Automatic annotation (TrEMBL):
Any coiled-coil regions, as ranges: none
InterPro entries: G6P_DH, G6P_DH_AS, G6P_DH_C, G6P_DH_NAD-bd, NAD(P)-bd_dom_sf
Location of the active site: 259 (proton acceptor)
Pathway assignment: Carbohydrate degradation; pentose phosphate pathway; D-ribulose 5-phosphate from D-glucose 6-phosphate (oxidative stage): step 1/3
Function summary: Catalyzes the oxidation of glucose 6-phosphate to 6-phosphogluconolactone.
Residue ranges of every copy of the Glucose-6-phosphate dehydrogenase C-terminal domain listed in the record: 208-503
Catalytic reaction annotation: D-glucose 6-phosphate + NADP(+) = 6-phospho-D-glucono-1,5-lactone + NADPH + H(+)
Binding-site positions, substrate: 197, 201, 235, 254, 357
GO cellular component: cytosol
Keywords tagged on the record: Carbohydrate metabolism, Glucose metabolism, NADP, Oxidoreductase
Native source species: Helcobacillus massiliensis
Protein name listed in UniProt: Glucose-6-phosphate 1-dehydrogenase
């Protein structure tokens, strides 16, 4: 959908959302308070939202519009990236409204309809309204049904209505399809925006620029030169206060099905003919459809659960000791698996994915590890410290790219050792990267969908993961690993069988 404020002649110009408002369900939750509300303020502070932008909170609290505005201001002061300015906050406050009600309360949606109409009349939002469902998936049917019954989902006179869905998109393939059926009975597919906040990160988007804007990398981005690829998402924290959500879900469903498989798709896909949404999604879908799991899941996957240990100089509790976790829980806090890709580009190249909590440090990275040189005209002792070349794309923290290659050590003898060459965002650009939710919220308001996975991608991802989680449930309880380490021994054995080892980030 074309935006009248987008100038196609100069892609450097900022894209500014047109007249619109957002209705946020779950506005009092942690995600809204810590991420969404500060992101909306930061967009306002950067003049990327119209001065008349409206934000409607929907929840059970008995709040006036002014109470809600105070809540938003408090969240902004705590979480804004761009610094607090009262004049900007006052501009935003003018469009803040709150509707008290339950998700299934018809009268509440009648009040919401009145508020939306009032924003159209007093703020000039033009009938353009987005509904952000920052709520548990089990509540989607209630909210979608009420939006349809009240007519809030229906656009007219050239305006638009959109819905934004936070992950998880179901808990397996069957539930993902059921969830999609509920949503698409109310909104058209092009009006459904599924949020994966990893796709809004600058470094993830830079992966596309890195691959396709540089002639020096693409010729070696294939099975002729690449030995294997490792994609890691490690957290050094435990589950915190998320026991109610996390237990029974686990790491594989929580982050591998979405975040890591999206990173995998962007790493392995073919070059799209353009970065328009349809072309980009088509290539991601092709590579996800080409994934094949190894025949023996017992040796090509690993599953772990952290136990107490020393981390950051202090003793931390194990998963089963966390508040709200059943003492017999078999939910994994670490997951690893090997994927094979049946394409000419990647035939014979394994992709290893791993994610976990209470690991050695917080890091997300993609490591492309190259084959060793076929012939080394050196004495064996000259290259005893030489490893395999690699390109490591760091998603977080310290966003950037590292190239690791061999170089001669200064001196009279020929000694070759690994060295690193780094590109770091923070030192290369003066402009601070926007937070992921800023980019995604703005793109949704612009109707710009490339960074939002569609239902086909979601289903293909679940089709990859479901056989693994089903096998685990039947045959593989999680193996223990100490907090502060890099996962269970089974994960290290998984690569050792192939003569490889995990990178130490």
């Amino acid at each position: 959908m074309n935006n009248p404020l987008r100038d196609p002649r100069d892609r450097r110009l900022p894209l500014i959302a047109g007249p619109s408002s957002m209705v946020m369900f779950g506005v009092t939750g942690d995600l809204a308070k810590k991420k969404l509300l500060p992101a909306i303020y930061d967009l306002t502070n950067r003049s990327l939202l119209p001065p008349s932008f409206g934000l409607v909170g929907f929840g059970r609290r008995d709040w006036s519009h002014e109470d809600f505005a105070d809540y938003v201001e408090e969240a902004v002061k705590e979480g804004a990236r761009t610094g607090f300015r009262q004049s900007v906050m006052d501009q935003l406050r003018g469009g803040l409204r709150f509707v008290t009600g339950e998700f299934d309360e018809t009268a509440a949606y009648e009040r919401l309809t009145d508020v939306v109409k009032e924003l159209d009349e007093t703020r000039g939002t033009g009938g353009n309204h987005a509904f952000y469902l920052s709520i548990p998936p089990k509540a989607f049917p209630q909210v979608c049904e009420q939006l349809a019954n009240s007519g809030l989902n229906a656009s007219e006179n050239g305006s638009w209505r959109r819905v934004v869905i936070e992950k998880p998109f179901g808990h397996n393939l069957e539930s993902a399809r059921e969830l999609n059926d509920v949503v698409e009975k109310v909104f058209d597919e092009e009006d459904v925006f599924r949020i994966d906040h990893y796709l809004g990160k600058e470094t993830v988007q830079n992966l596309l620029a890195f691959r396709f804007a540089n002639q020096m990398f693409e010729p070696v981005w294939n099975a002729n030169y690449v030995d294997h690829v490792q994609i890691t998402m490690a957290e050094d924290i435990g589950i915190g206060s998320r026991a109610g959500y996390y237990d029974g879900i686990g790491t594989a469903r929580d982050v591998i099905q979405n975040h890591l498989l999206q990173l995998f798709a962007l790493t392995a896909m073919e070059e799209p003919i353009s970065f328009e949404a349809a072309d980009l999604r088509a290539e991601k879908e092709k590579v996800l459809a080409a994934v094949e799991l190894p025949g023996d899941l017992a040796t090509s996957t690993a599953r772990g659960q952290y136990v107490g240990g020393w981390q950051g100089g202090q003793w931390v509790k194990g998963y089963l000791e966390e508040e709200g976790i059943p003492e017999d829980s078999e939910t994994e806090t670490f997951a690893a698996m090997q994927l094979n890709v049946n394409t000419r580009r990647w035939a014979g190249v394994p992709f290893y994915l791993r994610a976990g909590k209470r690991l050695g440090r917080r890091v997300t990275e993609i490591a492309v590890v190259f084959k060793s040189a076929p012939f080394l005209p050196f004495n064996d002792t000259d290259t005893k410290d030489l490893g395999q070349n690699s390109i490591v794309i760091r998603i977080q923290p310290d966003e950037g790219v590292t190239m690791r290659f061999g170089s001669k050590v200064p001196g009279s003898q020929m000694e070759v050792r690994d060295v690193s060459m780094d590109f770091v965002y923070g030192s290369s650009f003066t402009e601070e990267s926007p937070e992921a939710y800023e980019r995604l919220i703005l793109d949704m308001l612009l109707g710009d969908p490339p960074l939002f996975p569609r239902q086909r991608e979601v289903e293909l991802s679940w089709a990859i993961l479901d056989p693994v989680t089903e096998f685990w449930a039947e045959s593989m309880p999680p193996s223990p690993y100490r907090a502060g380490t890099w996962g269970p021994q089974t994960a290290h054995d998984m690569l050792a069988r192939d003569g490889r080892h995990w990178r130490r980030p």
